[in-house]
Every structure is written in C-alpha cells, then in structure tokens.
Amino acid sequence: MTSKALTLTFIAAFAIAWGFLPEFTVTLCNYIGLYALVAAGLVLLTGVGGMTSFGQAAFVGTGAYATAWVCTSSLVAQWLPGWLSTSWLPWLGLLLGLACTAGVAWFLGLVTLRLSGHYLPLGTIAWGLSLYYIFGNLDVLGGFTGLTGVPALKIGDVSLASPQSLGPVIWAILLLALWALHNLLDSREGRAIRALKSGRVMAESMGVNTAHYRIKLFVLAALLAAVSGWLYAHMQRFINPTPFNINIGIEYLFMAVVGGAGYLWGALLGAAVITLLKEQLQDLLPKLLGSSGNFEIIVFGLMMLLVLQYFADGLWPRLAAFVRRYLRPTVLESTQRSHASATLSQRALPGAGQVVLEASQVTKRFGGLVANNSVNMSVKAAEVHALIGPNGAGKSTFFNMISGVDDPTTGIVMLMGKTMTGHPSRDFAALGLGRTFQHVRLLGQRTVLENVALGAHQRGHCGWLSAMLRLDRKEEAALKAEALKQIERCGLGEFAHLPAASLALGQQRIVEIARALAGQPTVLLLDEPAAGLRHLEKQALSRLLAQLRTEGLGILVVEHDMEFVMNLADRITVLEFGAVIAEGTPDQVQSNPRVLDAYLGGSADFAGEVA
CB of 85 within 8 A of CB of 78? Predict the structure, then answer.
C-alpha cells in the first residue's frame, strides 16, 4: 500500500464511521477540524515560511464576527434585497469576513513583517491583543457580552444546525485546504515560499520578491483562520471575544509546532493531540488535585515542554517514519523533458566580447572604513574573469554590490547595458545574472532537484491559484526537466532525488552552480566555487566553466586557488585593501611586481603556488 492509498483509506473509514459516532465525539471532531484549519495556515506561515505569529486567533475572530454581524444586524436586514433569502446571509458573512481579514492582514503584514528576530512574534502579540479588545469594546459587536442568534448554515433546503450535519462540511473544507496547500508547496511558488525561511538574500538572488511573498503568505494563513472562524460562529450560534484571545493564539501555534511545524498533516495531528489532551486534563485533574486551582494549564505547559524537548521537529515526522516502514515506496514522477523548450522563457546570449557586467568607480564605505575604493571592472561575454586578492581585500563586498545584494556608496553598476545601482538583486536575476555564495545556501531538507529548480523561478509564470488547483503541471514538469538537465550537466545526476544537506560540501557548491545555470544566465558570478573540491572535481568544474565560456556566458570567479584561476581565467583583476592593484592576463598578473609583493609576498612564493 502506498501513502496515498493509506490516506484515502483513513478518510473513507472516517466518513463511514461518522454516522455512528456519539454526539460528544462528533463535536470534539468538529473542533479538531476547525483548529487544524488554523494550524495548517501556521504550518505554512511559521514552519515553512519562517514567520512566527501568536495572533492567528484574532483572524479567527474577524471571520466569526463578520458573519455574526451580517446575520444579526438590523441594518443588513434593511439593505437586503427582497429577492434575496435570509438563508444567504451566512454566505454574505463569509465574503465579508474574507474581505475584512484580507484587508486587515495585508495592512498588519505590511507593518509587522518588516520586523525580524524576536520583534516579529512580539509584534503579532501586540496586534492580537489589540484586535481582541476591539472585539470586546465595540457595541455594534455586542461588547464582551457577545452576539446571539447567529443562524445555522443552510445548503439549499438542508439545514446544518446539528454538529452531525455540519461536521462533514468542516472536514471537507479542511481536506480541500490541505490538498490545495500541498499542491502549492509542490510547485514553483512553493519552492519560493520555502526559500523565505532559509534566507532572503538567497531567495532574492533567485528572483523571488520576498517581501511580496511574505505578505501573501501572511494573508493566506489569515484567510484560513477566517474560514475557521466563520464555521465556528455558525456551529456555536453565539460568539464573544473569549475564544479569540492571545492564549488561544498561543495554543494554535502549539498545535502547529507539536504536530510538526514543517508538515501540513502535522497541523491535523497537533490539533487532535492538544484538543484531546486538554479535554482529558480538564476531567482528570480536578479528581486528583481538586477543583480550586487551574492545574490543567500548568500540567499542559509541562507536557508541551516535554514534547518539544524530545520531538523537536514535532510528532508527525516520527509517526510518518514509523508508518513508512510498512508502505510501498512512492514512485518518483518522471520528468518530461519535452515540455522544457515549449513552455519556459528563453534568453538570447550576447555576442562574444560584448560587455555584460560593468562596475565604474564603485566605492563602498562603512562609516570611516572604505571597503572598496573606486573599483573599475568589466566582464565580457564568452570570457572567464577572475577576481583575486588576500583575505580582507574587499572581494565579498564588491561581489555583493555587483549582484544587487548591497548598494555602492558611490559609483555605477551596469548589467546588460542598464544602470542597476539601487535595484534589488531580483532585478539583476531578471536581466540574466546568476550567482553562487561563499557560504553555501541551499534548502538542506529538500532534494537537489528542488533546489536547482528554484534557480529557474523567473522562467515560470504560474501563480498561487494555478498551483493550488494543479493547473501548473505542464510548467512544473518543464522546470524540473530543466533542473535535471543542469544537474546532469554538472555531474550530479545520481544525487538528484537526495536531500541537498546529505551531499558533501564540494558537491553542494556544484549544486549551487547548477541552480544558477537553471535560470539561463548571461552572467555567472561564482564565489569560491572550487573550495572543498578534490583534484578531479576541480578538473571537472574547470571543463564545465570552459564549456560555458564557449557557449557565450560571461563568468566572474572569486577564488583563492591560484592554480585553478591561472589555468582557467582569460583576465584577472587583483584587489588589495579595496582597490585594484593589477588587471590583465594570467601571465601579466603573475609577472606584476606589485602583485608578487602585496598579494603573495614575493615572486618565489607565487611561482611555487602556481606550480
């Protein structure tokens, strides 16, 4: 049995058993479904996107209060056209709740997501408390007393007033949401979302607008919470601010973390474990310790600490690993190469000798420190240009400025004839600049194939909705086909379906090169690509770069391995203390007295290094 078959079997068994469950169990299952919907959004936001939020309960409240107000307000009843039945009011409430939640989440995300570190979760606590007190202090929303008389949902003539009838709707929405979110993560857009957690610099360099993606992810998680609130209001038929306070927001986050913050099914597992645990503690502890104290909160907190201590990645990975022993391995999807040329955007390479990247009088100051001083350098198509210099010479700073990671204090950076000073690195990627990093930046738990496919992000165009509905499969096959092509080209075909973190450091550097090539660059910036490679691997890398040069790529290499550089580069620029001290062919640089004295300490040392 495969994992997919097992999942469908459990869903079918649950559906068959639903009609035979006691009413209390049905109600408990309904709550688990509602909580899991919120936790799924938090898995996407926190576990995958790397943004911690304690305020999701406020978005649940927004969805609940919107539909409750629409259904109970006399003002809405007056505005309602005569031809529209009152049975449609809950559905109008859903639309209002989604619209209000999207607007509030967009505004709060625009403000809050600028924060980083511990300031971000503190910010979510602040606005979570604010919305809670807004709910309680607005008379139109019933104040802290709440709103009564919320009608039950109706689908046609079928009333969903009982938990037994509403439950299938809750679980159908939950399963559809999990399916859509799974599809989203298994797509071009999903790879961009995963890249947010690993580091925004890397994601931006692959062409991902990280600020835009963070806000979209924040709004999506809020909308899932609002749908949960809408269902909650029509299940309870009464609402007040209590279920939307900051304590409940913390519980939602616990559900995501305990189940497995990086796993969608972990949201359901976490919601079930915490809901059932709370219910049992509320019955058991008064019998053991008396009813005078709120002991369940203390015991619940201690049990959560134990879970987090011994199951750092949550319960779902352990459960999945155990079940996987008894399942048939999933057959990997075949990658359709034929789609690549048909759907992916193509970029024409410039003619040999054309200047593709140019830095003019580039200077970078950090206060009184001058990291780069009036540096001039150009990279031409169909050449390998090396940038060398001792540690502290300013190579990395200069590298960041010509790739858009940082802005020069003065000077101009031009890419493909366009002035790029002040532009973000994603704009550099859009014009055809690909790069690697001095310290490897990969999605360690994702496969090599997925990492390399991220490099082709800007060559695809399908959005979130297309991904959720699996309308992007042709483009996704093309992206993966292109990624596999570059992986095999770099000699890593046998590792394509292994986690990137399982490879040796030198192989991970080659993965970064393959990722850059997947974007079909015109300029390739390589930051110490030979570091960690064995002799034969360096020879293979040298052959690959020579081949790319003949294809018309302009390549800039920052490297400390002098033998590698001298045997490969067409031109070399030498930096010392942030300034250019020499430029020319390898022979010219090797014979330059200033390079021999300042960079390697003398001609004898240099000759020995190259030999």
Answer: no
Strands (E), 138-277: 147-148, 154-155, 158-159, 238-239
Higher per-residue confidence, 292 vs 331: 292
The pLDDT score that the predictor gives to residue 606 is 45
**Mean pLDDT of the residues in the chain:** 88
Residue type, 20: F
The whole-number pLDDT of residue 601 equals: 58
Distance CA 370, CA 409 (A): 10
Q: How confident is the model at residue 342 (pLDDT cuts 50, 70, 90)?
A: very low
Distance from C-alpha of 543 to C-alpha of 304, rounded to nearest angstrom = 54
Strands 433-435 and 238-239: unpaired
Rounded to 5 degrees, what are φ and ψ at 412? Answer: -130, 135
Nearest to 267, CA basis, from 14, 29, 42: 42
| pLDDT of 60 above 50 | yes
> What are residue 574's DSSP bridge partners?
388, 582
Specify whether the CB–CB gap between 584 and 592 falls below 8 A.
Answer: yes
201, exposed or middle or buried, with CB in 10 Å at 0-12, 13-18, 19+?
Answer: middle
Between strands 554-558 and 523-527, the pairing is: parallel
The residue that leads in pLDDT, 7 or 1, is 7
Sequence letter at residue 5: A
Residue 248 amino acid letter: I
Rounded Cα gap, residues 418 and 74, in angstroms = 60
Order of strands across the sheet that contains 554-558:
433-435, 523-527, 554-558, 383-388, 571-576, 579-584
The SS3 assignment for 228 reads: helix
Distance CA 38, CA 229 (A): 9
Residue 342: exposure state from Cβ atoms within 10 A (0-12, 13-18, ≥19): exposed
Phi, psi of 554 (to 5 degrees): -95, 125
> For residue 407, how many C-alpha atoms fall within 13 Å in the half-sphere facing its CB?
8
Strand 523-527 to 433-435 pairing: parallel
Asked whether the beta carbons of 574 and 606 are under 8 A apart, the reply is no
- What pLDDT score was predicted for residue 610? 45
Whole-model pTM over 0.85: yes
> How is 440-496 classified by DSSP, letter by letter?
----TTSBHHHHHHHTTGGG----HHHHHTT--HHHHHHHHHHHHHHHHHTT-GGGT
**Is 60 exceeded by the pLDDT of residue 123?**
yes
